[in-house]
Amino acid sequence: MPFLPCSVNGVRGGFSDTLWAMDIREQFEENKVLAPYCTYQIGGPADLFFEAESVKDALAAIEWAEEHDVPLFVFGGGSNLLFDDAGFRGLVLRMRVREIEVDGHLIHAGAGAKAGEVVKAALEAGLTGLESWNGLPGTVGGAVYGNAGCFEVECKDVLESALIYMAGEGVEEVNPYFFEYDYRNSKLKREPAVVLQATFKLNQGDPVEIKSRMMEILKLRATKQPPGLSTGSFFKNPEGGKSAGQLIDECGLKGMSLGKAKISEHHGNFFMNTGGATAEDVMALGEKAVAAVKERFGIELEREIVFVPAQ
Ligand code: EPU
């Protein structure tokens, strides 16, 4: 059963409540258009759709999909993915478990908590280390899954532990080494599991300095990142040398359009939906950039965003 992770918060131990899993089916919505659930605002209908507000509900939905051999796709903020124009033939599970708890230098957050909410909790507790995530649109689950990073802080730098669900193995608490983190990469991209909760370890800091760094980050974002419908960086930066944005820029592709998809005039690695773009337009524009960069520089750009095929 193919499934991709994101997350939830909470329970320790496995879950096997068959009655609950049977009831959960009644809560699934049918033919639910996915576009409103991602920052791209693109995507057709999912056969089945469910928003889990608790770990128990999330695990029941996962168990239902496993038992019925229904393909499952799990996501959180939808800020780093592109749904197919044809939607998804199976169950799409949106993690909405958003509890955040501060315990000394530790912050426990549900996988569905927004990165920005964790940053706010850190500020309120006078904890430093996560200011760079101010304005990051994703959720905790997505950050753990993809080793999200910006302005010098990656998830691996602050993660203390995570609670995950693995098919056939149940719920387990793992330390950061489990994820074999690398730049925008983790073991979860190779061996899918669902992130339920994460604990971040921060340091005591000065709230005035934390706030000022947070503001600085917002300003940096505003100057570097174009507003509008996108998923942030479309490609990963190749190792060493020039960034993906610079390579695309030097190929003269900024401003190039395909249908309603457009490479931002401000940043070569931002692929925008200017209104009504299809996933096909975006993917085709991405392929044009890959081909141009390959021809000019001999470098194969690798997508950072996750494309979710309908089947
Ligand atoms: N550049 C150009 N032309 C462009 C775009 C960029 O010449 O069209 C140059 C810039 O002048 C700069 C260099 O390329 O010298 C790097 O650009 P930038 O500072 O904008 O950062 P980036 O490498 O494009 C990365 C992350 C961002 C993160 C920023 C800040 C990746 C793929 N992207 O962008 O993450 O916010 O650094 O830390 O690693 C994301 O992953 O979605 C994301 C937004």
Description of the molecule:
The chain is of the alpha+beta class and 311 residues long. The protein contains 8 helices and 18 strands. It has a 5-stranded antiparallel sheet. The protein is globular and about 50 Å long.
Task: Produce a short descriptive summary.
The protein is of the alpha+beta class and 311 residues long. The chain contains 8 helices and 18 strands. The protein starts with 17 loop residues before the first helix and ends with a strand.
List the helices and strands and how they pair.
Blueprint: H1 18-24, E1 29-33, E2 45-52, H2 55-67, E3 72-75, E4 81-83, E5 88-95, E6 100-103, E7 106-110, H3 115-124, E8 127-128, H4 140-146, E9 149-150, E10 153-154, H5 155-158, E11 159-166, E12 170-174, E13 194-201, E14 203-204, H6 207-224, H7 244-250, E15 257-258, E16 261-263, E17 271-273, H8 279-297, E18 306-308
Parallel strand pairs: 2-5, 3-5, 4-18
Antiparallel strand pairs: 1-2, 6-7, 7-13, 8-14, 9-10, 11-12, 11-13, 15-16, 16-17
Helix pairs in contact: 1-2
The protein binds uridine-diphosphate-2(N-acetylglucosaminyl) butyric acid (EPU).
